Description:
By secondary structure, the chain is of the alpha/beta class. It folds into two domains: 2-32 and 401-424; 46-93 and 181-397, TIM Barrel (Alpha-Beta Barrel). The chain is built from 14 helices and 18 strands. The chain has helices at 2-23, 62-70, 155-161, 187-201, 214-223, 229-241, 257-263, 287-290, 293-299, 310-313, 327-333, 366-374, 386-397, 402-424, and strands at residues 46-49, 75-76, 79-82, 88-90, 95-99, 109-110, 113-114, 136-140, 143-149, 206-207, 210-211, 250-253, 269-274, 305-309, 314-317, 320-324, 337-343, 380-383. Helix 12 packs across helix 13 (386-397).
Amino acid sequence: MKMHAISAALCALVAAAATSAQAFPANNISPLPAKVWNTLSGDAPIVIGHRGASGYRPEHTLEAYSLAISQGANYIEPDLVMTKDGELIARHEPMLARVDLNANGTIKMVNGAPVLNRTDSSTNVWQLAKYADRLTVKTVDGVKTAGWFAEDFTAAEIRSDIRAQERLRDLRLGNNAHNNQYVIPTLQEVINLAKAKSLETGRVIGIYPETKHPSYFKNFSDANGLQRMEDKLVATLHANYGNDHNAPVFIQSFEVQNLVYLNGKTDIKIAQLLNGSGKPFDDSRSYAELASAAGLDTIMTYADGVGSNTNLMISLVGGKLGTPTQLIADAHQRGLTVHGWTFRAENAFLPIEFDNGLDPAAYGDMAGQIKAFVDLGMDGFFTDQPDLGVAAVAALSAVPEPQTYALMLAGLAGVLCLARRQRSK
Length: 425
């Protein structure tokens, strides 16, 4: 009975809605004020191409970065590791390819070949017989790890015949078509691309470099008489952007002391990464403690923002989004931006309420997930599918004009009237 009354009332409004739309034609209507965002700056949240458009191309390649830019990303993210001769290259981990270990720490072998780790191998080095003798076991941040390590190759060797492969090779099957085609770029090449695309598109394309395992690489550079990773990074950034806080650059790290060190070397913006569990390798506090008000009090002394795991902003309860935390509000009170990571469209990565069935590779409702965090004031986010991230922000920024409200009302009323008529037959 209630629905019948509501639909009847809405039917009566159809004519009024249509009249309203005609009485206020679009060319005579001033748009409503632009959406006011509750980000720290009041601007729309930025979209960061996570390792490029890594949902569509092998990560950390110029092709992935270029695609991210064409899809509308504001920033592209190169993770940085060091080569044997001290060059900074874009890779997710020191391992160019990783293999599995037995329980006793030895390399797992099957039919005389090492067993490839199928979620942490991002190049074809494991298929190149000439480099078979460089397979080794090392300790990275206290964890025994086996593979082919970037610091055991010169930049020239990596450039010569080592090519990128899809890291999530069993999930993103389509990306495997791009395997063995793309070179591993240097930091300078990523910067060159961002600058060239800024000129080409008329948009400022920023970069968001991450120093990977800086304590590990400090030990390496010290032992080999090389420039420290952070010093090489600062020198490169200053040569390209100047020592400018307003440069379109954020430097990020999961460790703490290297960011404190960087804060004394540069005015370029710094972001402290916060994982959803565990602690930084070089700090006694957990990431949860760093995400607290007291932890943010410390972070604000050396950084301009935090890059937060989504679980620290809204915890998962039974696989679904739970109650939001105070992280964003607390960070904003201290003048810190909050950039969330990582938003991926595949069901395998989405909270249950946003997935779309049992196929882990099928796309769900990433836009719905993004909205939940943007509504809290998140200042930007890392995503593997920048096109979908850009579209999600655009949808949230849309403010209907008066005639649009009238047409929406007319449409809704029409649907309900039709439903009432159908039920009366």
